[in-house]
Amino acid sequence: MSLSAKLSKAVALHQHGQLVLAQSIYDEILGSQPNHFDALHLSGVIALQTGNPSRAVGLIRRAVVIEPNDASAYCNLGAAFNALREFDDALACYVRAIALKPDYSDAHFNCGIVLGELGKLNAALDSYERAIAIKPHHAQANANRAAVLQRLNRLDDALDSCNRAIAIKADFAEAYFVRGNIQLELRQMQPALASFDQAIVNNAGFAEAHCHRGIVLKEMLRLDAALAGFNRAVAIKTDYADAYWNRAFVSLMRGDFEKGWADLEWRRKKFKGRNPKAIRHFPQPLWGGEPIAGKTILLHGEQGLGDTIQFCRYAKLVSDLGARVILEVQDRLARLLAQLPGVSQVIAAGSPLPDFDCHCPLMSLPLRFATRLGTIPASQPYLRADAAEVTRWRARLGERSRPRVGLAWRGNPTHPNDRNRSVHLRDLVGFLPAHYEYFSLQKDIAGTDGATLDANPHIRHAPDEVGDFDKTAALCEALDLVISVDTSIAHLSAALGRKTWILMPFLPDWRWLLDRRDSPWYPTVTLYRQRSAGDWRDVFQNVRTDLIKTFGSTGSR
Hints:
This protein is an alpha/beta fold. The chain has four domains: 3-209, Tetratricopeptide repeat domain (Serine Threonine Protein Phosphatase 5, Tetratricopeptide repeat); 210-275, Alpha Horseshoe (Serine Threonine Protein Phosphatase 5, Tetratricopeptide repeat); 296-375, Rossmann fold, CATH 3.40.50; 387-551, Glycogen Phosphorylase B (Rossmann fold, 3-Layer(aba) Sandwich). 53% of the residues lie in helices and 8% in strands. It has 28 helices and ten strands. The chain has helices spanning 3-15, 19-32, 37-49, 53-66, 71-83, 87-100, 105-117, 121-134, 139-151, 155-168, 173-185, 189-202, 207-219, 223-236, 241-253, 257-264, 267-270, 305-311, 314-320, 331-334, 365-368, 387-397, 418-421, 425-429, 449-455, 469-477, 488-495, 537-551; strands at residues 296-300, 324-329, 345-348, 358-361, 404-408, 437-440, 459-460, 481-485, 500-504, 525-529. The chain has a six-stranded parallel sheet with strand order 7-6-5-8-9-10, with helices on both faces. A four-stranded parallel sheet has the order 3-2-1-4. Strand 2, helix 20 and strand 3 (345-348) form a beta-alpha-beta unit. Helix 11 runs parallel beside helix 13 (207-219). The chain is elongated, with a radius of gyration of 29 Å.
């Protein structure tokens, strides 16, 4: 059989998926002609198809040295680099392929993928649009374009692009999945649910669709159905960290701490690579609850400021086991937590660490201590403001003649649920009884809130006085009440043992459980929950009613 006939036979076998037979012929050709371009190139493609991108890179690199003007070889080399997550090299290959063949739709499409991975969203969008201009019926390019538009917060355009992908390919499960995510972000819950349902109809083993369907149901507080979705997702994909994380959320919210704490450990995989500052790795072992007397342990914060405040209470329990406790926390909390019971040394994150024998993230401590609803360590306030700072605040405020109420209406805008938990001051202020003394506990003022403060001079705002949590804590100690959305200020006030009212969105964070006004984590907290998603009026009205019941309508004392 001639060489060209062998190659034709191998290519035919390759195209029909008979990769082992095709590779055997490519190997035979390379045995006699080690620099045969097609055999090298297509052997590299098989290596990529069979999960060996490193081999693919080696083979296709040899091929493009032999034939440097073959656009498809560069495109496949880019795919191999992409599989290795070597995105800059992948991008260079796709750019070379496009230079050789400007109308190469797949190269433009693959450029879009890599640029998206590199966070260059506008460039990725441009690449997808070039691919679609060349090949208008490229369903995957339309779906990927939709996902990029979503990341650019162009949600209506994203939805249109996704619908075009579905019009091109009616059974395109991935496009229904992307559409469901866009609809979820638009708070179109029933349409999102229908999109995920259709994705599953088209691909019953689509673990991500089962998980995201569960997220929609969780947002709707249909928790049994949400759990079923997460369970199905992890049955299909046993290492699916996002599904375990969401299942933990539901279990903990329902008070099933045994299952919840265990599933919460999957956060270390969920956030690996996404938040390297949170997921820490040390040469010293992770403490798993074994005897620790006489050893030094590093406890470290990993999520938000509120999480650190909530779970630092466990430091004393670790110390009571006979360990010397070092606590690493966010810089803004370091001075406040310096006197935390059970802690030998507090380190601000980013500072050099002393020697230690083992470590544990704060949010893993409830699992280590097998915490259940009845065993939450919440018997007394565990934070204290600096007494001198409190004295200075009280002197500055003067003799108390009216109730003093602190206000925190916005959380960290980067929090994934911030749009649901934060409120505009202008919406709250009309429900606040007149003649009280109000104090802004916000460090930063955003959007229209500055104008609202200017129009309401009875709300005192001194951002320099609440920049560090030790100063904010001292102010909280001088107040009668703190009213806060679900953010770190709420945790701070509650950990100080101050009377704290927390304004809750319809879907609460798991730590506040369900259908209760109190919190087993904080005895001085009262919870005000939305009755329907996005509607704060009942919450604000109930706060107003309770303020008047507590302090009177005029605020005189």
